[in-house]
């Protein structure tokens, strides 16, 4: 049962400029707007610049004088550390004279200096008013010697010395403060210096146009933004380094971006779990968080996400989910009954279609990249020269490898893509039975068959499970079973949320019944065939390997190679399941590795028409999906199969009783090698 | 699935002769085995005898289609050809007309063919003869009835129709539901 392809009609991509569009030259900026580093000034500007320079020089000279004075004063202060009050007043007076200007701002820190000056002043005042008792008390508390206090009045020197002490410390402090200030300044330098720059710029760019000024401003802002972004990035990296496990209380709604961020973090933690983990949380908890994030980010329901997490390693999982979001490329199959691929490609290229062969593995597939006409309504399409069909749908028919003059059955054929492919491979010889249970969808089969010129077909509409009662002795049967469609989430996103355990159970029960019916339809004695191909567009092992495994136990069939040289091997071990070791002959296809829809193909060969009779109780157990190893053994022993296979299986059962599971597996493979 | 009655066989062959003339017998006498016309629910299917026998094993209400559907008998017992018969009519056709590229799309939407859209016409086409319509690259597009003979076409008004539309391959999209 295939799915209807999403026809990307209506999306017409324009190619190149229109017929009438003249090719324009690249825009040329006027010279005035060009941003060359050095600018030639006009005569007046030059004059003005000269004047400005003169003024600056004059100003600079006067400033220099002042500066010299100040520096000398400073030196004095520093050198005559044990000098007296007068000096202080002098320096004070000098400092008072100083104004704050652009020239001295690099070393002059107006406010703080003021404060220090004030403190000095205060000290001086204190010294002058030293006779106060309170002051004395204060100084007592400062643990000064009582003697020096008593001699306060007469001993300028002593006081001076005291002052000097304090002065010393103050000076030290000053210096220290200065350095500190500088440090602080350098810390907050950026903003200030930027402001300064701006001012400078404004001064020098007075003659610039407003737009130029704006441009400069913008550039500056951009640079700032960049810097901030870089900082933020650094912050992010820092946050990435250590992932904080979210506490349960914060069940806030967070943005999709945060979810994505967290997903990435959790995956990195899980990749190197022992090193990066938070000791208080188990792997399970991490996985739960990841699952929930994946569910919200890709909008799956939890059940399906859990299935996928069991199926893929984490790194692959994200790739798969990502690939399931985007549409697969549109592919068509050439109808070899009516035309050849080369001719069709030429005809379509003439209609403005951009296409390529789908790959070396197919001689009939074409990939459509873009098209100016709706690809599902060209005269070539209507004349039956091609059919729109996913690349993955070519695989089951290639695996089936129909031969001419055979009797072939497609059990769930709608909309007839694969069935018409079979007819094309058979070159309209033999008989092709196309069946589907859905009366509405069977109309699509009728339409496609007549359009494509398939004349050897019988189209029926019945329950596939009852087909063996109606007709048997087919050489080959293709069963493209109805499935949950988890491999084609890009085509039908409703799959993501609508499936649960029960749906899958329903699906694989139906698939098992259909597969058994398909096997029953085949004649094992056919000279050319006796093959069954089972395919689904789901990637869950429940619907694939498990169904095949069930059929292997129930009927006299064996897995054979699909002859497809790509695709990944089917699972032999999946969680608690141990499937038949030949299961690796089946093929799986994934959207992220093979760029086609998720798909499963297995080819079975029927080697005996007898249906093995099994114990009914075991049947029921099997139906209840309990894979008990004991049941298997008994069943196998009871199995009246040919001697070679039986021996193998008995060996297996013995080894199962003896050793552990891993040993058992190895032994199985060994036996296989010996036998095969 | 049953054989066509004597009367209905006659009606069917008369109809087919309008389009492919004496080539009708080529449909019956084929080098690659026996082919026959079978009728089910008033629809006529053209199919190899081998396949017809196999299809007989399927219960009639579950059988949808066998081989190629040629058309159906109306309630008034007239035969109407379906577009699905085109693949057998086109190679044996007696009278053909070819459409210009511009008129191609118009015909595929179910319109008659006007003189302006006519690219070529086979000689000595009679009036009201069945004709097969092709595009200029010889892809069969459908069939109809000539509204004018070849001679009349030569000096006809550009807007007058030269071929009445009966069936075209656009129906595969337009009316997939009731193809049969």
Automatic annotation (TrEMBL), chain A:
Gene3D superfamilies: Sun protein, domain 3, Vaccinia Virus protein VP39. Residues 1-212, 618-676 are annotated as: Disordered. Residues 320-607 form the SAM-dependent MTase RsmB/NOP-type domain. It is found in: Nucleus, Nucleolus. The active site is at residue 537. PROSITE patterns: NOL1_NOP2_SUN (PS01153), SAM_MT_RSMB_NOP (PS51686). GO terms for molecular function: methyltransferase activity; RNA binding. Residues 64-81, 115-142, 658-676 have a biased composition (Basic and acidic residues). Its main location: nucleus. Residues 41-54 have a biased composition (Basic residues). Keywords: Methyltransferase, Nucleus, Ribosome biogenesis, RNA-binding, S-adenosyl-L-methionine, Transferase. InterPro entries: MeTrfase_RsmB-F_NOP2_cat, MeTrfase_RsmB-F_NOP2_dom, Nop2p, RCMT, RCMT_NOP2, RsmB-like_ferredoxin, RsmB/NOL1/NOP2-like_CS, SAM-dependent_MTases_sf. Signal peptide: none annotated. Residues 165-209, 618-638 have a biased composition (Acidic residues). S-adenosyl-L-methionine binds at residues 412-418, 436, 463, 480. GO terms for biological process: methylation; ribosome biogenesis. The keyword Nucleus applies. Belongs to the class I-like SAM-binding methyltransferase superfamily. RsmB/NOP family. PANTHER family: 28S RRNA (CYTOSINE(4447)-C(5))-METHYLTRANSFERASE-RELATED, NOP2 YEAST -RELATED NOL1/NOP2/FMU SUN DOMAIN-CONTAINING. This is SAM-dependent MTase RsmB/NOP-type domain-containing protein. The lineage of its organism: Eukaryota, Metazoa, Ecdysozoa, Arthropoda, Hexapoda.
From TrEMBL, chain B:
It comes from the Eukaryota. One of its GO terms (molecular function) is RNA binding. Its main location: nucleus. Residues 95-174 form the PUA domain. SMART domains: PUA. GO terms for cellular component: nucleolus. Pfam families: pre-PUA_NIP7 (PF17833), UPF0113 (PF03657). Keywords: Nucleus, Ribosome biogenesis, RNA-binding. It is found in: Nucleus, Nucleolus. One of its GO terms (biological process) is ribosome biogenesis. Belongs to the NIP7 family. Required for proper 34S pre-rRNA processing and 60S ribosome subunit assembly. Interacts with pre-ribosome complex. This is 60S ribosome subunit biogenesis protein NIP7 homolog. It comes from Cryptolaemus montrouzieri. The lineage of its organism: Eukaryota, Metazoa, Ecdysozoa, Arthropoda, Hexapoda.
């Amino acid at each position: 049962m295939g799915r209807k392809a999403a026809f990307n009609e209506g999306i017409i991509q324009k190619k190149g400029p229109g017929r009438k569009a003249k090719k324009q030259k690249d825009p040329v900026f006027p010279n005035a707007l060009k941003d060359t580093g050095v600018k030639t000034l006009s005569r007046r500007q030059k004059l003005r610049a000269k004047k400005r320079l003169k003024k600056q020089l004059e100003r600079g000279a006067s400033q220099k004088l002042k500066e010299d004075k100040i520096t000398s004063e400073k030196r004095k202060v520093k050198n005559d550390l044990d000098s007296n009050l007068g000096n202080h007043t002098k320096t004070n007076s000098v400092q008072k004279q100083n104004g704050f200007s652009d020239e001295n701002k690099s070393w002059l820190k107006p406010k703080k200096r003021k404060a220090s000056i004030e403190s000095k002043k205060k000290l001086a005042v204190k010294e002058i008013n030293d006779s106060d008792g309170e002051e004395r008390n204060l100084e007592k508390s400062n643990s000064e010697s009582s003697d020096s206090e008593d001699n306060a009045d007469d001993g300028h020197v002593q006081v001076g010395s005291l002052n000097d002490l304090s002065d010393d410390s103050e000076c030290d402090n000053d210096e220290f403060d200065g350095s500190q200030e500088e440090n602080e300044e350098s810390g907050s330098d950026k903003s200030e210096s930027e402001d300064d720059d701006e001012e400078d710029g404004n001064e020098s760019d007075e003659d610039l146009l407003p737009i130029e000024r704006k441009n400069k401003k913008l550039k500056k802002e951009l640079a700032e933004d960049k810097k901030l972004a870089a900082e933020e990035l650094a912050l992010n990296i820092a946050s990435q380094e250590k992932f904080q496990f979210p506490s349960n209380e914060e069940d806030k709604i967070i943005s999709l971006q945060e979810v994505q961020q967290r997903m990435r973090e959790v995956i990195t933690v899980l990749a190197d779990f022992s090193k990066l983990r938070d000791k208080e949380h188990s792997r399970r908890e991490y996985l739960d968080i990841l699952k929930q994030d994946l569910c919200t980010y890709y909008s799956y329901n939890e059940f399906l996400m859990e299935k996928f997490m069991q199926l893929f390693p984490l790194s692959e999982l994200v790739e798969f989910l990502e690939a399931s979001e985007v549409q697969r490329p549109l592919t068509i199959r050439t109808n070899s009954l009516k035309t050849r691929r080369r001719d069709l490609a030429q005809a379509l290229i003439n209609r403005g279609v951009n296409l390529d062969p789908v790959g070396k593995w197919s001689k009939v597939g074409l990939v459509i990249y873009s098209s100016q006409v709706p690809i599902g309504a060209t005269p070539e399409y209507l004349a039956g020269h091609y059919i729109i069909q996913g690349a993955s749908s070519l695989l089951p028919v290639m695996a089936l490898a129909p031969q001419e003059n055979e009797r072939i059955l497609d059990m769930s054929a709608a909309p007839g893509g694969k069935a018409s492919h079979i007819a094309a491979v058979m070159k309209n010889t033999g008989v092709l039975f196309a069946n589907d249970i859905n009366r509405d969808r069977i109309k699509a089969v009728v339409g496609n068959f007549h359009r494509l010129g398939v004349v050897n077909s019988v189209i029926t509409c019945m329950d596939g499970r009852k087909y063996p009662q109606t007709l048997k002795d087919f050489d080959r049967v293709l069963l493209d079973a109805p499935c949950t469609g988890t491999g084609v989430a890009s085509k039908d996103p409703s799959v993501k949320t609508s499936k649960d355990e029960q749906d899958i159970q329903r699906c694989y029960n139906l698939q098992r019944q259909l597969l058994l019916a398909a096997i029953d339809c085949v004649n094992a004695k056919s000279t050319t065939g006796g093959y069954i191909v089972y395919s689904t567009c789901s990637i869950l092992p429940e619907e694939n390997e498990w169904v095949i495994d069930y059929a292997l136990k129930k009927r006299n069939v064996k897995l054979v190679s699909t002859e497809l040289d790509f695709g990944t091997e089917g699972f032999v071990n999946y969680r608690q399941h141990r499937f038949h070791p030949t299961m690796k002959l089946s093929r799986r296809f994934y959207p992220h590795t093979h760029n086609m829809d998720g798909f499963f193909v297995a080819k079975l060969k029927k080697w005996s028409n007898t249906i093995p009779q099994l114990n009914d109780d075991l049947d029921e157990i099997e139906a209840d999906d309990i894979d008990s190893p004991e049941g298997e053994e008994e069943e196998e022993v009871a199995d009246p199969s040919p001697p070679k296979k039986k021996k193998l299986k008995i060996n297996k059962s013995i080894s199962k009783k003896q050793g552990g599971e891993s040993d058992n597996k190895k032994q199985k493979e060994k036996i296989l090698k010996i036998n095969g | 699935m049953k054989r066509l009655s004597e009367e209905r066989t006659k009606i069917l062959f008369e109809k087919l002769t309008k389009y492919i003339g004496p080539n009708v017998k080529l449909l019956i006498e084929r080098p690659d085995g026996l082919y026959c016309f079978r009728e089910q629910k008033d629809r006529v299917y053209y199919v190899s005898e081998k396949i017809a026998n196999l299809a007989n094993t399927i219960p009639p209400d579950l059988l949808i289609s066998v081989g190629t559907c040629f058309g159906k008998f109306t309630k008034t017992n007239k035969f109407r050809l379906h577009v699905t018969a085109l693949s057998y009519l086109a190679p044996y056709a007696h009278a053909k007309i070819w459409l210009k590229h511009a008129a191609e799309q118009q015909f595929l939407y179910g319109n008659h063919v006007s003189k302006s859209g006519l690219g070529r016409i086979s000689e000595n086409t009679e009036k009201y003869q069945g004709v097969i319509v092709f595009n200029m690259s010889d892809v069969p597009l459908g069939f109809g009835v000539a509204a004018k003979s070849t001679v009349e076409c030569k000096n006809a008004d550009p807007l007058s129709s030269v071929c009445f539309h009966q069936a075209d391959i656009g129906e595969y999209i337009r009316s997939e539901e009731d193809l049969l």
